[in-house]
Amino acid sequence: MKIPANFAFSQNNLQDYVDCPRRFELRYLEKLAWPAIRSEPILAVERHMQLGERFHRMIQQNQSGLPADLIGATASEPELIEWWQAYLSSAPDPLPERRLVEHTLAAPFGSYRLVAKYDLLAITPGERALIVDWKTSLRKPKRQILSSRIQTRLYPFLLTEAGKSLNNGIAFKPEQIELIYWFTADPRNPEHFPYSSNQYEEDRSYLQNLIADAVNASDTNFPLTGDERMCRYCNFRSLCDRGEGAGEMETDSLAEESSESSGYDLDFEQISEIAF
Amino acid sequence: METFAYTPSQEQVIAAPLTESMFVSGPPGCGKTSAAVGRLRQIIDQGIPAESILILTPQRSLAAPYARETSRPDLPAGGLPTIVTLGGLAQRTLQLFWPAIAGSSGFRRPDLPPTYLTLETAQYYMAKVAAPLFDRGFFEQLVIDRNRLYSQILDNLNKAAVVGFAHTDISSRLKNAWIGKPEQLIHYEQAQECANLFRSYCLENNLLDFSLQIELFAQQLWPSHLVRQYLSNQYRHLIYDNIEEDVPVAHDMVREWLPAFESSLLTFDQGAGYRAFLGADPADAELLCGYCDQTLEFSQSFVTQPALQELGSAFTSILLSKPEKTVTPRALTAYSFEPSRFYPEMIDWVAAEVARLVQEEQVPPGEIAIVSPFLSDSLRHSLMHRLQGHGVLARSHRPSRSLRDEPAARCLLTLARMAHPLWDLPVATPDLRAALLQTISGIDLVRADLIASMLFSTRDKQAPLNSFDLVKPGMQERITFSIGERFMRLRAWLSRYMEAEPVELDVFLARLFGELLAQPGYGFHDDYEAARVTARLIESVQKFRRATEVTSQASGLSIGQEYLKMVADGVIAAQYLQPVEEEQPDAVLVAPAYSFLMVNQPVRYQFWLDVGSQGWWERLYQPLTHPHVLSRRWQPEKAWTDVDDFSANQETLQRLTGGLIARCREHIYLCAARVNERGSEEKGPLLYGVQSLLRLARGLEAGRV
């Protein structure tokens, strides 16, 4: 199936393409609803996601100027209280003055567009820009896994490409940008990814090749992933004749590596917009 | 990418300085939205941060041109504008500022997050609150489905919120206007009592229905300095399209907000206001003109040919009973009148004529719309079936569809009832037969019937399906072993489930789908439409579960059982809003007339079905509510008379026909059936209007006009 001209590549759809081109096709091009369970235990996954969503909203409320005690009073679940306390005591600090919460940036890239929604952008115009991403996964992934994620490449790259209006009309230099992953599972040890011109060029080339690859696949076909373990955490497994039941997230080491482990993690990009 | 030249008037709007507030009005199809989209692009191209632009529309479908523009690959790098309705803005703002207002808004647990109710879950809670009152004799004089009364009480609450009066004033407004039988006054009071109880229940349980969301936004958030500052910092430029379709509280907010914007553009569709029954107030919208620096009027239609414009004028003069009724020779070429004796005959004719246009005249199917005042399931089915028979691609657009009517959903609900014997929701043999037809690939009606009648036990609820091995070999052969094997896998799956602890209904459905029905050999495996229906059903159950888990303990029923009971009682129809498709397929559109207007996409050919139907003219029978009396235009002490009723209906008809004509490029087929869908003769005012037009036409031909 052809990629439509107005298609926007995001960390989610690109990561899906990397994990399984066929999943990318089914989910984003065919927009196929396939309501099988991605990972078990489903209600625990759902609860964790809901708490993650509320935690992101609490931070958004705080960054928008609401007092922390007022916000904290709306949390009654032990995990949420713990996360909130961790945020108050261990969130990256000091952050640059200008804050943009849940902010979307997009930029033309070849014949298509790149898009990303940032949990938090903290900016000192002319000096630096911090990207902070709040992670509520059960475990903190290894740095090596994080560095290989599309998000780690796309977010700073796109800020360089599309952040001009946030920096007095001048594009940020890659060296002014840093990406920070902050974990509820390990709040005192966030992972910092400073950006650089070399990395910027490498990411540009990587993203160009990846998108070109997807466009080529759309002219021929989108193959199934070669790593069938991925299918345990994919709702399309029955459509592809790759199994029946969903994998167990808590007991499987693959969960940490699979993008489908987002069942236990949450990016604001994944929360459906209340657009209307 | 589509490119076209703008008119000087459009250029004026697009290029206006970024300090202007403009009010642009004109008839439909004269390029107001195109100019607004052009201005949006111009603002972004000038380097203004796109995230500082707010695009407000009254309804999601009307925002499609802006969504298309902002997804173009050549849009400059940067942020994105916010495209939103009043309801969306209210919900976003509430989510953000809930901790700041919950304590002062009367909620019992301001320390807990609220639950946002959908149409369905609000209806559920209304039923929960009002049912005991119904059992005490409320509304006993009214012969109308109880669920329709629930929705009218909710509608009253919504009207109070969007018009901007206290919800406790609903009955006094309705009573003051009523001049009929005195028994009706009691019904208004009873409706008020239900509304008050519902509101108290929401406050008690942190539930936010649409009316409470709007009320909190308008009365608590919008006046707050903190919120106003947040919104004003966020948005510096406003584009507010189709303001005539929006509600008074949205107009109030924009009126107060306008001075804070650096630039603003408001567009007003003359003669529209099709959402009046939902509280839209075009007269109130027009007042915003006085708050803008500059007013522009577009007049040239890019859609309708002169012949259709003249037809529109002729219709207006007839429907509004103007003393001078004239028709031009040119207008006669813009329509055809196609009478049929019976309803099916009319449908046959329409399908054949559509096929002729597509196949012989090479009209793209997407350039044809078939509209009627309402779109019943049977009408939709007959039309789609006949068009399919002619090889014409068609799509139907209804604002909502009931999942109960989808075979895939019925199948899932049957299997859910069977898997939960303690819920005491029995399955009949025909239900299972229908479910088997959906479930097992390769099965036909005869084989499904054989299995259902031989292997299904209505008595043994713990093990309702018997083994295929019990069937005599000859019969096994007739049914086929492959079908038998699939049946046995279904049986085994259900048995395993029934032996374990039951799970939530949505989880059950998702597992059933993924582990069995979507596997090779089963009916949902490569049926994308069945998968979509399943996804929507699961979503409906999930939303129901999330909205009711805080209050469900009291009933003693499990949430899944409660859901199925509510679906069976018709309280919730498992309805879903159909998503607005970004890319419309090239297919004939079959839609209710109002939905077609709200899609706002002109076509070359329109077919108006059953022009004799009263549905083109009169309001639905709604004994507990009244769109006009509850509007801001209405003087609270005035009585609603038959004269008011007649003129309101005439005005509605004129507005509707005017709107349809303004969205037609070439030709309108006025289709009539002497005997309607229900088998009776009906001659509504639109038919009289058409007959007046025909008389004028005959007079013209005879040289008398």
Protein architecture, described:
The complex is a heterodimer of chains A (276) and B (705). By secondary structure, chain A is of the alpha/beta class. Chain A has a single domain (13-219, 230-266), classed as Lambda Exonuclease, Chain A (Alpha-Beta Complex). Chain A has 9 helices and 8 strands. The relative contact order of chain A is 0.20. The model of chain A is unreliable at 252-276 (pLDDT under 50). Chain B is α/β, with parallel strands linked by helices and 705 residues long. Chain B folds into 4 domains: 8-90 and 218-297, P-loop containing nucleotide triphosphate hydrolases (Rossmann fold); 115-205, no CATH class; 306-399 and 583-701, 3-Layer(aba) Sandwich (Rossmann fold); 404-577. Chain B is 49% helix and 11% strand. Chain B has 26 helices and 16 strands. Chain B has a 6-stranded parallel β-sheet. Chain B starts with 7 loop residues before the first helix and ends with a helix. The mean pLDDT of chain B is 92. The interface between A and B is large, with 51 and 60 residues.
CATH class of the largest domain in chain B: Alpha Beta
- Largest pleated sheet of chain A: 6 strands, mixed
Sheet with the most strands, sense and barrel status of chain B: 6 strands, parallel
- Give average pLDDT of chain B, whole number: 92
Which descriptor suits the 3D outline of chain A?
globular
Query: What is the CATH class designation of chain A?
Result: Alpha Beta
User: Largest interface here, residues on each chain?
Assistant: A-B, 51 and 60 residues
N- to C-terminal distance of chain A? 29 Å
Can you say what the CATH homologous superfamily of the largest domain in chain B is? P-loop containing nucleotide triphosphate hydrolases
Secondary-structure arrangement, i.e. CATH architecture of the largest domain in chain B: 3-Layer(aba) Sandwich
* Total strand segments of chain B: 16
Beta-strand content of chain A: 15-25%
Could you give the order of strands across the largest sheet of chain B? 3-2-6-7-1-8
